[in-house]
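The step that takes the researchers longest sounds almost clerical: writing a folded protein down as plain text. Below is the pair of lines this work produces for a single protein:

——
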Amino acid sequence: MGKLPTFLFNDNAKGLLVTSKYLLDSLNLWPENQNRFAKFMHCFYLLSYVYFFYGNLYFVFTINDIGGMAYGLTVFGVLLETVVRRILMYVYRHRFCELLKDIYYLYWPSNLAGNELHKLLGKESRYLVVYCFFYSLSALIATTLYITQPIITMNTPYMTAYPFNWRKNPYYSLLYAWEGFFFIETVATVCGCNLFFSGLNYNCIAQFKLLKTHIKKNFKIHRNDLVEQKKFINKCIVHHQNILRVCEEMNQIFYYFTLSLFLSTIQTCCLSAFTVVPELFLFGCFYFCGHCCQLFLYCYLGNDLALESTDLATTIYTCGWETCDTDKDLRKSLVLMMVRAQKPVQISAGGFGYLHLSSFMKV
């Protein structure tokens, strides 16, 4: 269970899921590998985060420095975002498995519409992987600073405090090592979930591109054969419905996920302005830039999905259906498909908006 089909490794779009699978597997988050050990690790992670929540809030309510308080609340937002991601990945594991099966076996291969589009999809997917790689690399470099810098001031990576003499060894050493490990886990969880979402979203974008190219290239081939033309149009309609169904399911699963992303980003942007202390200002800048890059990735993919889904209507309208021997039912099917394509496929941010580049600019 959880073993990927071999054909994914040769697919330029579905291959994105291979990278996210190995990363999420190392964090016990891959939906298809939720065994007993993974469940135990979920409990261990969540109980540890509850303890860090308590320590972080104790630090926030006992410190007198407004900058330190703002930075502590920023860390609290990151902790909460990580916990939400881990919980949602586990709660929706069965729905994720069904979603992945649909992408594996119902989505068309990237080479279906020709070698040119196959190469284009490979180029775009590589750009996406490179963006996620450098984003994750910069996050890991910043993590090194987060982990090493607080030891100078006898603080902890998560900016926690407790109602006992926790700065006395061995308590401080154990607590520091514990939080340092979990800080790395936090960054890996955030980056892994980002890559997973990117892979799912880009596969939907790729399918719209494949469908458009397939219609452009092959619609007129069977212009004089009504039976073959019916088969072709029905195949395209069924595939369009499959894409819409997967997008709707993905939208429902990530409903609260994207909401927490927006709220966390807004919180970080607001609280970073209060970190006027030089030592904390650098940390605030890292958090601010990291959340902006993360939100840009989501909004860019959501914007591209909306554009590609609506562009399908133009493709159908200009494919030359008026020159073919289509009957009344086929033309009606094309019109209905065209009308549906005029409504963009959008990823909702918890009902408060959609993942668009305009939403990114507003934030």
